[in-house]
Amino acid sequence: MKITKGKVIVCSPGRNFITIKLETDEGVYGIGDATLNGRELSVASYLEDHVIPCLIGKDPSNIEDIWQYLYRGAYWRRGPVTMTAIAAVDMALWDIKGKVLNTPVYNLLGGKCRKGVMVYSHANGKDIEHTLDEVGKHLDMGYKAVRAQCGIPGVPTTYGVPKDGGKYEPAEKGLPSEHAWSTEKYMRHVPELFKRIREVYGDEPLLLHDCHHRLTPIEAARVGRDLEPYRLFWMEDPVPAELQEGFRLIREHTTTPIAVGEVFNSIYDAERLIKEQLIDYIRMTTLHAGGISHMKKVASFAELYHVQTGSHGATDLSPVTMAAALHFDMSITNFGIQEHMAHTDETDEVFPHAYSFNEGYFYPGDEPGLGVDIDEKLAAKYPYDPAYLPVNRKEDGTLFHW
Ligand code: CS2
Ligand code: MG
User: Of ligand 1's atoms, which has the minimum distance to the CA of residue 147?
Assistant: First the structure.
């Protein structure tokens, strides 16, 4: 079997997505997600100009060899653009292999380790009362785990909280908007949010929170300790994670579990964090971290150190990634939890899929391959619409972490 054609499909059903489609001389094709929020066209060009020409004529069954060819062959290794492009090809090749062997991809990865994949959803509110309502809505929808994010008194815009009260979408149309931030006001407010959630909903719900890279290690230690009475499932991205050893300081002060890694793109970004057990959950994904093939290696390494997975799953990861993630999640023993931010209806129409939700769990379905497709005709109705993630400034104007 040979790869005969590769195309990159750019579409924007509610938000921008990049999808690769690899066709073969036996009529079987595979698809992969290549979306990098705010830098979508960089990955599209990387695939069209530098990857697809090298794939034509290759045997799609040799997934690991093609992965190494794209990783080592680039010379310039790692980075979000490169590893997202490799991930897209990797997903498409696993999709082809499953279709050729007439089996769902999880079967090729070692089969099922569990009945279903527990997911967590997002409860975002402009204030504590609104967030409490949103938590209740998601518990009523059957979710066992809910991430809570809330507006902060005196801070005009906060990560995770939609400005217009609608559904939260990280990227905003046009050039980056500027958000304002106050760590002090945030640190005073967030323990109160979780105190109220526990008062209203009790101890059973699994509660998560995303600090979104905005604290220093000692501030994260303080927030982790202040949240201990409310027994969070995890606090996420407490600090920017370039300095992996910075997590030692957080670890010394709090038992609140830590999750990190959605911006990581290779095992080398997390090697010390995992080896020194400085984190509890690794949030790397089959999209931004080199695909299913690399994520299987990450999960195996993490398993040695009691670290579980908790893969990123925001709306800027397309249903193709959601499908690939569920096959990966089913196949590993140290699965922790999977993020699920519901896509828009038009997105789900462009990307028909076999996965389904029931009572807090997702199921990948048993279609051969990944069990997801792209409706190219429908996709063409939603042209690329430039959008960027915001930038963030402290109240004194200092450019900060968004
Ligand atoms: C967030 C994301 O889901 C999360 O945990 O960190 O919303 C993140 O901000 C976006 O995916 C960035 O594109
Ligand atoms: Mg996050």
Answer: 5
